[in-house]
Design goal:
By secondary structure, this protein is mainly alpha-helical. 86% of the residues lie in helices and 0% in strands. It has two helices and no strands. The longest helix has 37 residues. Pfam families: Flp_Fap.
């Protein structure tokens, strides 16, 4: 229970701090979007071949494939 209160207090403190630093939020959101895009691209590059192979295996296993 104490951990929940600590988390909520920390979140409140961060929100108060965020109100003080409004100019940096656009940059932070931009960095976050770039990081998410990089993770998505990396995942597609790494798993893309495996997914393609799996679909090709399914297609060849179907009747008439």
């Amino acid at each position: 229970m104490a951990a929940i209160f600590y988390t909520l207090a920390t979140l409140k403190d961060r929100l108060v701090e965020a109100d003080k630093e409004r100019g940096a939020t656009a940059v932070e959101y931009g960095l976050l979007v770039a990081l998410i895009a990089a993770v998505i691209i990396g995942t597609v590059v790494i798993l893309g071949g495996r997914i393609n192979t799996a679909f090709q295996t399914i297609v060849t296993a179907l009747p008439g494939g």
